[in-house]
């Protein structure tokens, strides 16, 4: 079940940097923070490596004067708001309609686990033919909270959690799988 205004207002009181006027119907509008990361050109992410190094893949940019996002490119940032998803809920992050209507999209995989706490990551892709100047504090996304049925594992206690209580825009971390297992599967396919 998607939560509506009266329930969202109760939960939003546990969030930081939230304006209750940003609760609209069944969602909470979220703003982009003042820093973002953009990919460097001509870099390779080696997913065959045990722990790919992502430190050299991105440049950090300040959004204070706006950042001009070119067509078919992306940036990632985080929300100004610090979110605490209750244990019996999960969050879905969607683009605001106006933002989507100019061709800027958030990937469909924007999801927050039960118990997640932190500044939500925002990935913005420019699908339009236009350069779009992105300012900080602009309301780009909306958070829907959904009640879940049954017991969930608290995100902060999971051994694979990497982004719990995230305060800064972090580089991606690829440490939740075993590359040896992947390589063995590839080898067995090649031997068949």
Can you tell me about this structure?
This protein has 192 residues and is α+β, with helices and mostly antiparallel strands. It has one domain: Deoxyuridine 5'-Triphosphate Nucleotidohydrolase, Chain A (Distorted Sandwich). The chain has three helices and twelve strands; from the N terminus they run αβββββββαβββββα. The protein has helices spanning 5-12, 97-101, 179-191; strands at 23-24, 27-31, 35-39, 58-62, 67-69, 74-84, 89-95, 104-105, 111-112, 117-126, 132-134, 139-147. Strands 1-2-12-7-9 form a five-stranded antiparallel sheet. The protein has a three-stranded antiparallel sheet with strand order 6-10-8. Strands 3-4 form a two-stranded antiparallel ribbon. The mean pLDDT is 84.
Quaternary class = single chain
Count of alpha/pi helices: 3
Helix vs. strand class: alpha+beta
Q: Which regions are unreliable across 5 or more consecutive residues at pLDDT < 50?
A: none
CATH homologous superfamily designation: Deoxyuridine triphosphatase (dUTPase)
Here the CATH topology equals: Deoxyuridine 5'-Triphosphate Nucleotidohydrolase, Chain A
CATH class: Mainly Beta
Tell me the number of strands.
12
- Give me the side-by-side strand order of the main sheet: 1-2-12-7-9
Helical proportion, percent range: 10-25%
Largest sheet: number of strands, sense, barrel closure: 5 strands, antiparallel
Q: Kindly report the average pLDDT value.
A: 84
Q: What is the CA-based Rg, rounded?
A: 18 Å
CATH architecture: Distorted Sandwich
β content, as a range?
Answer: 25-35%
Number of domains: 1
H/E series: HEEEEEEEHEEEEEH
Shape: globular
Distance between the termini: 47 Å
């Amino acid at each position: 079940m998607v939560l509506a205004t009266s329930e969202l207002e109760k939960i939003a009181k546990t969030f930081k940097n939230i304006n209750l006027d940003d609760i609209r119907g069944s969602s909470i509008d979220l703003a982009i923070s003042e820093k973002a990361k953009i990919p460097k050109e001509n870099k390779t992410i080696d997913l065959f490596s045990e722990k790919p190094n992502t430190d050299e893949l991105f440049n950090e940019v300040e959004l204070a004067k706006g950042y001009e996002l070119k067509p078919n490119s992306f940036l990632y940032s985080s929300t100004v708001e610090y979110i605490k998803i209750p244990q019996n809920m999960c969050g879905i992050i969607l683009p605001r309609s106006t933002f989507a209507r100019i061709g800027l999209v958030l990937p469909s995989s924007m999801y927050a686990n039960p118990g997640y706490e932190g500044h939500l990551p925002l990935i913005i892709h420019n699908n339009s033919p236009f350069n779009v100047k992105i300012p900080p504090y602009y309301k780009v996304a909306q958070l829907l909270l959904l009640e879940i049925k049954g017991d969930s594992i608290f995100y902060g206690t999971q051994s694979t959690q990497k982004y719990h209580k995230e305060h800064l825009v972090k580089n991606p971390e690829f440490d939740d799988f075993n590359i040896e297992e992947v390589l063995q599967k590839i080898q067995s396919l090649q031997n068949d």
